Amino acid sequence: MPYVLISTQIRMEVGPTMVGDEHSDPHLMLYLGATKRNMLGNHFWEYYVHDAPRIVLDKLEKRGYRVISMTGVGQTLVWCLHKESTENANILPNQDIAVNRPA
């Protein structure tokens, strides 16, 4: 799973941080120390940690993930991270890409 979304509400300095949903990689969730829960009224499960987002981002960077975007939605902050996958590297052959350069 090359993409991970993490989010936090209200206070980003202290956590908790949501780190995954019910379909997230269980090995990665174990590495992060995440707990799976179902909040009353929600029809889905989520993984969360008590760590602040900065701690989670540091841990994910050590596993090869890089932040590709971040946004605020109301009082929620969301980060999207991506990890390059080597298992699909041979799908597209290496090819030279022409670059338009000004004359």
TrEMBL record:
Chief site of localization: cytoplasm
Keywords attached to this entry: Cytoplasm, Membrane, Nucleus
Compartment(s): Cytoplasm, Cytosol; Nucleus membrane
Name of the encoding gene: GCHFR
Protein name: GTP cyclohydrolase 1 feedback regulatory protein
PANTHER family documented for this protein: GTP CYCLOHYDROLASE 1 FEEDBACK REGULATORY PROTEIN
Similarity-based family: Belongs to the GFRP family.
InterPro entries in alphabetical order: GFRP_sf, GTP_CycHdrlase_I_reg
Pfam families: GFRP
